Amino acid sequence: MGHFITTNPAARDCEHCGAVEVTGFADGLAYRLSMLPVTSHGELRARIAGLRTWGLAGDGRPVYRGARLIQARPADSSPVFASHRCSAPIPYEDTNIAFAAVSVDLVAKWRRPATDGQPSGAEVEVLDLFSAELGARVVAVEPAPF
């Protein structure tokens, strides 16, 4: 019985556009994900554009969302990510802010350690987007207040 390759996800900044992306293999399928979670409408728009969409398995790794998974778990009820395409960023109105914390945690978990410990420009951009939607402001506090 053959097995398809599955690797640990790795977060990095896209070499072309600078957005945060996650790369790896899931059951033999290569993925390159945008880390902005999408709404059900955003997932539909991504699929029409020819992009794959991905959910999270029980262990937190990306899993391809075929028709059954899309029907069983709508994007509005679980974190869903579209494939990254530099020329087609996720529109703001298709971003599912309900899963912002999940996205930020995954990027932190999957990112290779930075040499200076500072967040990348793309990470700051993601945090700014989420904080604007939540009506909050992200500030750096050293040491952490808790």
Molecular structure report:
By secondary structure, the protein is an alpha+beta fold. 27% of the residues lie in helices and 18% in strands. The chain is built from four helices and six strands; from the N terminus they run E-E-E-H-E-E-H-E-H-H. A three-stranded antiparallel beta sheet has the order 1-2-3. The chain has a three-stranded antiparallel beta sheet with strand order 5-4-6, covered by helices on one side.
Task: Compose a concise summary of this entry.
The protein is an alpha+beta fold. It contains 4 helices and 6 strands; from the N terminus they run βββαββαβαα.
List the helices and strands and how they pair.
Layout: E1 10-13, E2 20-26, E3 29-34, H1 40-48, E4 53-56, E5 62-64, H2 67-72, E6 81-82, H3 100-110, H4 121-134
Antiparallel strand pairs: 1-2, 2-3, 4-5, 4-6
